[in-house]
Amino acid sequence: MTVTDQQTAFDCRQDFAAELLALAAEDERIVAVCNDSVGSSNLVGFRERFPDRLINVGIAEQDLVGVGAGLANAGKIPFVCAAAPFLTGRALEQIKADVAYSEAHVVLCGQSPGMAYGELGPTHHSIEDLSWMRAVAGLDVIVPADSVQTRAAVRWAAASGRPSYMRIPRFKVPVVTPEDAPFEPRRAVLLADGDDATVIAIGSLTSRALQAAARLREEGVYLRVLNMPFLDPLDEEAIEAAARETRGIVTAEEATISGGLGAAVAATVVTRHPVPMRILGVPRVFAPTGDTAFLLDHFGLSADGIVSAVKDLLRHG
Question: 19, 26, 61, 128: which one is catalytic?
């Protein structure tokens, strides 16, 4: 599938589960740890294939991360899986102290991030996770854009020897990653080139950035679209190049604007080459009730929203 195929969408959770199973078949050190979430973490197949390598700690997220760290210290490679809001919110101290500070090779898998839980509301939305995880030293933060990057993320995290946190999207997204695209820290993926403005997008907003670029191209506006699979470590060189070579930067993320992608890009831009920016995400508010599609549109996290932000930047920047 090519970067231009925007019609067929895939469930990244299925690719996560398939890749984890394949890894586990190759390496007996791979284990899974969950918090009474075998089904929602897509670990049913793992449990059936490797029943003695799945640990279910129950609804106890602090124990979940602690057990993962202990397994890592014993030479295992644990994939710690839970709904993103509870994994990051309830176990932040353990992530900081037991995993990152201790340099334990734990792969933290935040399932159903962003506003994937829709009508369940802000208690179940995970829009703060990127800000929290970026604030923890020594923790790689990975946000796959599609099923291809999800599989690559699982492989990379298992082999990295480092603590990491990755988002596993809940709702289906199209494949946007080219077959020869790199997947490594500090390497953005160029999806479209242009010199009018740059859109830097992560996760579910990446395909929407490409849709926006296609619409603007029809109006004679040429966007550079960068996908940033590693939120940390960030590709600062690609950001600086975009700032120097285009008229401004728009960032797009399914997360709060306080401390996530937009904040990271802005910090790079302001110290290297200041340019006008627009930061798209969820402002510091609790979301209204509604399904995921409604909420993304409500906060302007759509192709239309990106188009509007680009036009505003070019008009006023």
Answer: 61
